[in-house]
Every structure is written in C-alpha cells, then in structure tokens.
C-alpha cells in the first residue's frame, strides 16, 4: 500500500545528498557522480518503505531522462561544434583578432570586452581567463595598474561569455534543469545579464580613467601568441562562416541540432580545404577534440603553454563528464519525485514565498547554498532546478525564468567563493586572491540585483498562458500524482 511521506521521510534523501556532496565532494574531493548515486540509493530505500516498487522508481527516472534527452543531445553536439570550430580555424581566428584590439590605455575595459568576446567564442571561462586573461594581467603588470581591478574585469568577462555562449556546458545545463530550450534561455538572460554588462562597463571605464595611461607596448607573450596562431592557421572570410550560421539559426529560431551540425560541417570543410588537415583528423577533432599535435610543421615542444591550453579542447568526449553527472543527478531526482518528497519539502519552503520576487530570491539563495556546499556549479544548477521547476510552472511562470535565475545564482557566483574549484582556479591563474578581485567582478554579483528587481516589480518576467502546453502538462502530472 503506497502512502505519502512524512516531512522527516521527505527531507532525509535531500539532507543526505547535501551532506554527502558537502563533505564527500567539498571536503574530501570524492567523485560527485558516485555520491549522487548513493543519495539515490538512500532515496530508493525511503521510497520502498512508502510502498513504491523498483519498477515505479525506474519509470520515474526514465520519464525524467526522456524529457531532457533532446537537451543532452545538444550538449553532445556542442562538443562536436567546438572541436570542428577549433580545427577549422574559427575559434583561433576569433582569438587572434580579439587580441589585436588590446589597447594598454584602456586596459580595464579592454580586459572585460576581450575576455567576454573570447569566452563567448569558446564557451569556456577557464580557457579564456587562463590564456587571454593571463596575457592581459601581464599588460596590467607592466603598466603598474592595480591587479585586483583587472583580475575582476577578466573574471566578469570570462563568465559573461560562459553564461551567454551556446557552447558553454552550464548554459546548456540550465535549460535542461528548468525544462526550456537553449535559445529561449540565452535570450531571456539578456534581461539580467545585459544590465549587469552595462553596469560593469561603466564601472571599468570610470576605474580606467583614474589610472595611469602611459602608452606601454603589450608584453612579449601577446606577440608570441599572435605569431604562433598566424603560423598555425590560414585566415579568410569563410573561416568565420560557422558562427554566422549559428547566429542566424538563433535569430530565426531554427532547430538547434541541425543548425549546429551544419555549422560543424562547414567548419570541417574549412579544416580540410583551408587548414590542410586530413578527413581523419577532422573526424578525430569532433570525437576526441582538437590537439595542436595534429598540425604539421609546428614544433609543439617549443610552443608556450598558453597555446595548447587555449586550443586543445572540444569533441564529444569532452562533454561526457557533464552528461554523466546529469544522468546521476536525474537518477536521484527521479526516485525522489516518484513518492512526492519534493512536493512535501517545497510545500514547507514555499510557505515563505508570497510573490514572484520571493520565489526568485529563494532560488538565488538555494543556488548560492548549493555552490557553497558542493563547490560545483553544475550540481548547483541541476539540483535546485529540479526541486523548483514545478513551483515556477504552478505560478504560471515560464521555465526560462527559472533557467535564467539558476545561472544568475550559480554559474557566475562560483568563482567568487574561495574554496570552489572555479574560485581556486581564477585566483591561482590570475595571481590575485579571490576576496581581492571579488569587489571588481561586478558582473558576477550584479545579476542577482537585477534578478530580484525584476522579480519584485514583475518586469522582464515571462508568463505562461493557461493553454500553454507546458502548463497543461504540469496540470496533468499534478492530477496524476494526486490520484
């Protein structure tokens, strides 16, 4: 005989997951995937006590995964896209001309714009900060400019691009967790990330005007990166065609996967015709990622470490870690959902939620707590997203409101928490302690401000109509659970 869980029974699996990830992953560095499976096992024991069979649990897990499978396929195709854009010369060309615009006189705002540009092109905050960011820190050091300000601008730019790029793993995960589409998610983020970008630009321009503006040449490392890229690849207009195809598809709202695959095919064509790679190398780049060792006539032993750190990436295999953690997270979510535990916990949590603004605030706090506990931005998107999804739809709020808030509360906050992997990486790579660059990473925390403002004013909040298929599906699922 099946029964509803008590509050204690409902909260045990969630508290177990928080403790396992907080201690196991956050303190001891154990693999999050296994910890999620253990959490799923605990949830399964509770579900069995409530009278649910293994078949009930499996059906719920399969149901969760089937709904997210299109988005997971997009995530895998993103790996193909990055690998093909690398070997076709598209991303290297963007980096090359991005570096060309560096002007030491406007180093702070330039650092923000250049890292934003490179991060959008590559979809990686770590890659842009670890390559272009390091070069920009060298420029700032040579000018005697306070490094925390430049480091904050670099982190802001890196995470702006990471947040808005269709190539980013978190940008693909957020709509998976919330139940919306990739381009709906990116378009809706403009309302919080756009004002944050403008505010950041104003701060960096004002800060730059108060600094010494001696016209000092860019450091030698920038010149080495430019000359090396120039030797490795051949530049022409067709090399830039793949991102134009993706941009066109985004604007015209064409199906995501066909557009990305077509863009990848053009990039692979460029790699063979213009870059001189073989068909086998082109295919290898889409599976295992691009590697500079594929380039003939280049002495890779004497190349500075920044080049491979920027270019050696992409391929389907690079996305499998993210896909795996998503599968494990949804294994846990499926078992917890089958017995209504989430509904019991959220019912208590939602008692304090009286408006759209308070719901968004609760989402932001949940994401921030998850980041602090798990030190993992991906989990901090997936878990709160799954827990709060129905709360948004039940209030007739479009899921893209949730996906936007997940990114505002998790993705860009992660590098500001000193003990997370992102916080440690940024501080170590840029040579500035997290708490010193934090005040200058304006974009990373100002998104919170605009998210809360829009929530409480009702501006820039997308609503659902009663006849919207998303809302109708929610009603049917809710009626089924009550039955």
Verbal overview:
The chain is mainly alpha-helical and 483 residues long. It is built from 23 helices and no strands. The chain has helices at residues 7-25, 32-49, 54-87, 90-100, 107-122, 125-143, 147-164, 169-178, 182-209, 220-232, 241-251, 256-273, 279-288, 306-311, 320-338, 341-349, 356-374, 377-394, 399-411, 421-430, 434-437, 442-457, 469-482. Helix 1 crosses helix 16, helix 5 packs parallel to helix 7 (147-164) and helix 7 (147-164) runs antiparallel to helix 9.
Q: What is shown here, in short?
A:
The chain is mostly helical and 483 residues long. 73% of the residues lie in helices and 0% in strands. It is globular and about 70 Å long.
Unreliable spans: none
- How many DSSP-defined strands? 0
Radius of gyration: 23 Å
Could you give the order of the helices and strands? HHHHHHHHHHHHHHHHHHHHHHH
The portion of residues forming beta strands comes to under 5%
Distance between the termini: 14 Å
Let me know the average pLDDT.
Answer: 84
Share of helix among residues?
A: over 70%
**How many helical elements?**
23
Largest sheet: none
Q: What overall geometry do the principal axes of the alpha carbons give? A: globular
Query: Which structural category do the helix and sheet elements fall into?
Result: mainly alpha
